[in-house]
Design a protein that fits this description.
With 275 residues, this protein is of the alpha+beta class. The longest helix has 9 residues, at 239-247. Helix content is 12%, strand content 24%. The strands form five sheets. It has a four-stranded antiparallel sheet. A three-stranded antiparallel sheet has the order 1-15-7, with no helix packed on it. It has a three-stranded antiparallel sheet with strand order 3-2-14, with no helix packed on it. It has five helices and 15 strands.
C-alpha cells in the first residue's frame, strides 16, 4: 500500500507504524475541495462514491539514464515524496506548452514541478489529455464545461538518486524526467528509474452549477496552482517489486498488460466498500 496525502509536511514516521496499525488515519484534508458561498459560508464538496473519487496508478514508464532507455523498478518501501508545491499561486511558463521534447527553461526541475498537476473537465464536448491545464478553472468555466465533474491530477517524479528514501524537503532525492508523464531523460545524478505514480481525484462541481460562490482547496488556494500530493510507500515486502516485474511491461498477452489490477496475479483483490 501507499499512504497518500496532501499535507505539505505531514508524513507517517515508519512503515512499521503502518503495518501494525489496526486502523491508520492520515490527514488528507488538502485534497478536499470546498465551495465558498457568496455569503461566506464554506461547505465541503462531496465527491461521488469511494471507487470513483480517488484513483492511483503505478505506471511502467521507461526513461533515459545517460542515454540508455531504462525500465522502472519498484519504489522502495519507506520512500517519501512530495510532488509540486502547496504554496504556489502562479504559473511562470509559456501557455500552451511548447512541443515535446521540452528544453531550456521548460525542462528545469522548477518548470517540471509546475507541470506535475492538472485539472481536466469531465463530460464536456471532447475528452482532454492528462495534465491539460495547470490551474483550477473559474466558476463560470466549470458551470459551462463540467457536467460530469472535475478531475484533479498529480504526477510524481520517476528519477531517483538510488540511495536516499527521503530528503529534508521530500523532493531533492528524486527528480522529474524532462518529458513529464511520457518519460524522457533523467537528470545527472538520478540514475535509477522508479514506478510513475499518478493520482486522480474526482470532484462533483456540477452540484453548484449556477450558484454564487467559488471553489478553493482546504489549504486556502482558490487558484489550483498549489495543488500537490505526498506519497509514503509501505507495501508488503516484495509485492510491488513482483507486480512491477510481472505486470508492468506493456507486452501483449502478459498478465496485467491491460492495466486492470485484478488481472495481475500478484494481487489478492478485496471488494471495494463505499464509505
Amino acid at each position: 500500500m501507499d499512504v497518500l496525502t496532501s499535507g505539505q509536511k505531514v508524513m507517517p514516521t515508519t512503515t512499521l507504524t503502518i503495518h501494525t496499525a489496526k486502523r491508520l488515519s492520515v490527514p488528507t484534508k488538502y485534497f478536499q475541495l470546498y465551495y465558498v458561498w457568496s455569503s461566506g459560508t464554506i461547505v465541503i464538496l462531496r465527491a461521488y462514491t469511494h471507487d470513483q473519487r480517488f484513483k492511483r496508478y503505478y505506471k511502467h514508464v521507461p526513461a533515459l539514464v545517460d542515454g540508455v532507455l531504462t525500465d522502472p523498478g519498484a519504489i522502495p518501501n519507506g520512500m517519501k515524496i512530495i510532488s509540486s508545491n502547496a504554496i504556489r499561486r502562479n504559473f511562470t511558463l509559456p501557455v500552451p506548452d511548447p512541443p515535446l521534447p521540452w528544453a531550456g527553461g521548460d525542462a528545469t526541475q522548477e518548470a517540471l514541478e509546475q507541470k506535475a498537476i492538472g485539472f481536466n473537465y469531465l463530460g464536456g464536448k471532447a475528452p482532454e489529455a492528462s495534465l491539460y491545464r495547470y490551474y483550477l478553472p473559474d466558476k463560470a468555466f466549470l458551470d459551462t464545461n463540467c457536467p460530469g465533474g472535475l478531475l484533479f491530477e498529480v504526477l510524481f517524479p520517476i528519477c531517483w538518486n538510488g540511495k536516499d528514501l527521503e530528503s529534508s524537503d521530500f523532493k531533492s532525492h528524486v527528480a522529474y524526467s524532462d518529458a513529464g508523464a511520457g518519460g524522457g531523460n533523467c537528470p545527472l545524478g538520478f540514475n535509477h528509474v522508479i514506478n510513475q505514480i499518478f493520482l486522480e481525484t474526482f470532484y462533483n462541481v456540477a452540484v453548484f452549477k449556477d450558484r454564487n460562490g467559488f471553489f478553493a482547496f482546504a489549504n486556502g488556494d482558490p487558484t489550483g496552482y498549489g495543488g500537490h500530493g505526498n506519497v509514503f510507500t509501505a507495501w508488503e515486502e516484495g509485492i510491488l517489486a513482483a507486480a512491477t516485474e510481472q505486470c508492468g511491461p506493456i507486452t501483449p498477452g502478459s498478465p496485467g498488460a491491460d492495466g486492470i489490477t485484478a488481472n495481475c496475479p500478484v494481487f489478492d483483490m478485496n471488494p471495494v466498500v463505499d464509505q
